[in-house]
Amino acid sequence: MARARPVSGTASKDVHWYQRAVFYEVLVRGFFDSNDDGTGDIPGLISKLDYIQWLGVDCIWLLPFYESPLRDGGYDISDYWTVLPEYGQVADVAQLVDEAHRRGIRVIADLVINHTSDQHPWFRESRQDRTNPKADWYVWSDDDQRYRDARIIFVDTEKSNWEWDPQRGQYYWHRFFAHQPDLNFDNPEVADTMLDVVRYWLDIGLDGFRLDAVPYLFERDGTDGENLPETHDYLRRLRKEVDSLYPGKVLLAEANQWPEDVVHYFGDGDECHMCFHFPLMPRMFMAVRREQRYPITEILARTPPIPEGCSWGIFLRNHDELTLEMVTDEERDYMWSEYAKDPRMKRNIGIGRRLATLVDNDRRVAELLHSLLFSLPGSPVLYYGDEIGMGDNIYLGDRDGVRTPMQWAPDRNAGFSRADFAQLYLPPLMDPVYGFQAVNVEAQMRNPSSQLHWMRRMLEVRRQHPVFGTGGIEIVSTDNPSALAYIRLSDGGHSDGGRSDGGRSDGGRSEGGRFDGDEAPRWPDGDNLSTGKPLTPDGSGGPADIVLCVSNLSRFAQPAQLPLQRWEGMSPIELLGRTPFPPIGELPYFVTLPPYGFYWFGLVAGPPSPTGD
Ligand code: NOJ
Ligand code: CA
Predict the structure, then answer these.
(1) Is 367 a catalytic site residue?
(2) What's the chain's average pLDDT?
(3) Burial class (CB in 10 A: 0-12, 13-18, 19+), 287
(4) Ligand 1 centre and the CA of 112: distance in Å?
(5) Cα angle 284, 287, 292; round to 5
(6) Strand 311-315 and strand 472-476: pairing?
(7) Which of 73, 303, 573, 575 could form a disulfide with 600 if both were Cys (CB 3.0 to 4.6 A apart)?
(8) DSSP secondary structure string, 288-333?
(9) 349 CA from centroid of ligand 1 (Å)
(10) How many CB atoms lie within 10 A of CB 222?
(11) How far is residue 251's CA from residue 256's CA, in Å, rounded to a whole number?
């Protein structure tokens, strides 16, 4: 079997690389069409790796590329061992990984183990009768009454998690579309086979997986079928296998749940290396629309510590709807009224739009949101096209509106494909605001002040400060509710136990002014939210990496007084321009923020040098 080389450079010895990585989510189908058949493919993606490298991405996340009838974007797999022929072959995946590794880029892929397509040969066999060898590979029942506490996820299309199969004369269980029967993980053959799948693709060279729909692997009566102990047992088994045979690979859990539930998917550092932080995402959008920091500070305060070596995956948008499952009913109504003014923008329990359209194409807001994405604790995950501000097409079905072809150039078919327009898997955007003639990579490459160049510069600065990936966070209290300030601090940073209040008697952490006027939870004293360890000096004497981030969530200019007295004598250096700012004194530090403005300051000891270094 073809096997890719390991990633180039010393980084290959770094098993915790994902903590500092920036991920880039790619829809193979929509990225670049190398053979003019209207569908993006793996050779097409290979030909665009230089672009991804130029952008400064560390790891590509591939949406499913396996054999599939594509009734759910490839999350309906009909053969785990082959690549969908339109996308290429297994050898192309090996070559992709190889070429990416040569450029210092890793590649992870979606692994969909909870369910298959109903076209999978296993299911075709299973449904034939009750005695065939695969009869017990799926979850069958004589009635549709079991597991009634399990919620329905695709509310737009599904009425029940059970589907009647006339062939077998029984119901089968499905957490997603009815054409996606759930595999039966109680069957040891299924559990073992999925580990075979994992080994197969890791042998080819993939650097890990995004584990699709992990909370639902097992079902039990009297439960909601999520987060069952059996599911965690299986994930521990999977992790053990991966760590022992393939050290340095990553498992990233997709569990759309509250932080206190999701943290269990890290286990004691023995389940997934990473988990997506779903509830943070809508709160970033809420914060800018309300012009208040509390949605963000509250969810951070509600986020428990995670084990050493683990990381959150944080994101603004992805290939699905902007999910609103992890907000209150009141907040959901607010989000719908603000961000889905046309009912066609709604999808399931969420909003089917891209970042640029959500922020009404206001580049200041898009940049502010990205600055939060790149500076809050967790590894940022970008969605293809958002780096150039691509829009969406709400008239397309399901979630296709946010999956249109990548806009490379103002040429025919956005430079994505030379096929006839009618042959394209989806039409590219052609409207005057977001269409490919207005928004494309080629034009933004030529324009040094484009969003694309800004994004690249941000990633460059982030890379220079590993504290963004591995450091703790302390919120800096300020009286202006539109200002959000925090310090990112590595363990080598000097600390008085986490105080960032300048010694005020209330600890400076009252985050008054929740939406309903309640006082929000107090920030846990001295907690490093990334690891749960107190921020104490490590005694190494090495220079600490300390970054102060200050954002203005308002559309108007704002002042902010920051109680930074415990950093007295240090000098802030603005990281994008390396401009020295006046040293921190004994009074609160004063900054003036332009509308939707933000600053990242490195804090260095002593007065600023003339060069800012
Ligand atoms: C989550 C994926 O992100 C989504 O696109 C898919 O439809 C479901 N899982 C079902 O696999
Ligand atoms: Ca093609």
Answers:
(1) no
(2) 91
(3) buried
(4) 9
(5) 150
(6) unpaired
(7) 575
(8) HHHT-SHHHHHHHHT-----TT-EEEEES--SS-EE-TTS-HHHHH
(9) 14
(10) 8
(11) 16
- Angle 280-290/363-375 helices, nearest 10 degrees? 140
Backbone angles phi, psi at 533, to 5 degrees: -90, 145
Q: What is the pLDDT of residue 506?
A: 31
The one-character DSSP state at 193 is H
- Identify the active-site residue in 98, 118, 254, 298: 254
Q: How many whole angstroms separate alpha carbon 572 and alpha carbon 603?
A: 5
Instruction: Check whether 401 has a pLDDT greater than 90.
Output: yes
Task: Note whether 468 and 532 are within 8 A (CB).
Answer: no
Strand partners, 323: 350
pLDDT in tens, 23-64: 999 999 999 999 999 999 999 999 999 999 999 999 999 999
Nearest residue by C-alpha to atom 2 in ligand 1 = 212
Q: Is the CB of 73 under 6 A from ligand 1?
A: yes
Whether the CB of 255 sits within 6 Å of ligand 1:
no
Q: What string of H, E and C letters represents the secondary structure of 567-585?
A: HCCCEEEECCCCEECCCCC
Mutate to test the pocket of ligand 1, among 118, 176, 182 (most ligand atoms within 8 A of CB): 176
Residues 21, 75 contacting (CB under 8 angstroms): no
540 within 8 A of 549, measured Cβ to Cβ: no
Amino acid symbol at 320: D
Verdict on whether the full-model pTM lies above 0.90: yes
Q: Would you state the structure tokens that stand for residue 204, as one six-digit string?
A: 């080819």
pLDDT one-digit tens code per residue, 91-145: 999 999 999 999 999 999 999 999 999 999 999 999 999 999 999 999 999 999 9
452: left (phi over 0), alpha (psi -120 to 50) or beta: alpha
- 3-class secondary structure, 122: helix
The pLDDT of residue 575 is 97
Write the CB contacts of 130 (distance below 8 Å, at least 6 apart in sequence).
Answer: 140, 168, 170
The 3-state DSSP class for residue 592 equals strand
Residues 6+ apart with CB under 8 A from 474: 486, 487, 489, 498, 500, 523, 535
CA distance to 103, 202, 333, per residue, from 116 (Å): 34, 20, 34
Per the CB < 8 A criterion, the answer to whether 561 and 592 are in contact is no
CA geometry: angle 326, 330, 332, nearest 5 deg: 45
* Atom nearest to 72 CA in ligand 1: 7
Nearest atom in ligand 1 to the alpha carbon of residue 177 is: 10
Distance CA 520, CA 514 (A): 6
Q: What would the 3-class secondary structure string for 78-100 be?
A: CEEEEECCCCCCHHHHHHHHHHH
Give yes or no for residue 527 CB within 6 A of ligand 1. no
CA distances from residue 201 to 111, 156, 235, 409 in whole angstroms, order as listed: 10, 33, 17, 33
Record the tokens describing residue 391, joined without a space. Answer: 């829009």
Structure tokens belonging to residue 116 = 């298959």
Residue tagged active-site, from 92, 212, 271, 387: 212
DSSP state at residue 115: B
Q: How far apart are CA 270 and CA 243, in angstroms?
A: 9
* Token pair in block for residue 232: 């965690």
Give the model confidence (pLDDT) of 497-509 as tens digits.
Answer: 332 333 222 333 3
- Rounded distance between C-alpha atoms, residue 566 and residue 361, angstroms: 40
C-alpha to C-alpha distance for 118 and 127, rounded to whole angstroms: 9
Distance, in Å, from the CA atom of 267 to the CA atom of 18, rounded to the nearest integer, reads: 17
